[in-house]
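Page 37, continued from 36.
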């Protein structure tokens, strides 16, 4: 008698596919990110990915949305001390990127041909950025940061953090103390934004 392959329960397919997709991105990078590879890793038929995600772009959308939702949560932590919070947001950005490299790759580091985030997913990205804007606005109200438009100041901070983190992920960081160097970068940025 031959062993029958049991079907994966429908409610397990989406989480299994996302887990497999993130593993593939971590291990093989964007070049290894195919429906066939994801299906094989998740132990589902390729058609299951089309049925549950409408294909590869749907998987990318789910990773993008999950990543920005997590990042928004991590950036949005507040303690009541505006200056501490804005520095903590900078630290949270780096921690997220280093701990969730596959998400970060989809969100920022690689342009997947044919993938364009939906309006809903773009709103999640805007929500993450808004958390940083909120921190900046609280600092401005207290007179800690320049009075330029908060979105402009937040963009400067986001771009600076992203640049450092991207170089670090790509192994183009020559600092022998990357953690300490990043803290100095944030401190310098904070001082540069001070009134």
């Amino acid at each position: 008698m031959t062993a029958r392959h049991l079907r994966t329960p429908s409610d397990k397919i989406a989480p299994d596919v996302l887990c497999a997709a993130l593993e593939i991105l971590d291990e093989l990078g964007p070049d290894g990110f195919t429906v066939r590879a994801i299906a094989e890793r998740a132990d589902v038929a390729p058609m299951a990915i089309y049925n549950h995600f409408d294909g590869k772009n749907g998987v990318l959308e789910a990773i993008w949305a999950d990543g920005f939702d997590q990042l928004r949560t991590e950036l949005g932590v507040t303690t009541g001390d505006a200056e501490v919070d804005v520095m903590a947001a900078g630290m949270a950005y780096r921690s997220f990127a280093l701990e969730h490299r596959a998400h970060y790759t989809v969100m920022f580091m690689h342009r997947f041909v044919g993938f364009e985030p939906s309006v809903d997913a773009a709103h999640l990205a805007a929500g993450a950025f808004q958390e940083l804007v909120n921190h900046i606005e609280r600092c401005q109200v207290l007179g800690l940061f320049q009075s330029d438009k908060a979105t402009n100041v937040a963009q400067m901070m986001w771009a600076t953090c992203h640049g450092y983190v991207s170089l670090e992920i790509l192994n183009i960081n020559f600092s022998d103390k990357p953690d300490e160097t990043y803290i100095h970068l944030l401190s310098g940025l904070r001082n540069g934004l001070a009134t």
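Residues 78 and 84 are 9 Å apart (CA to CA). Flag for discussion at group meeting. Residues 8-53 form a domain with the Arc Repressor Mutant, subunit A fold (CATH 1.10.10.60).
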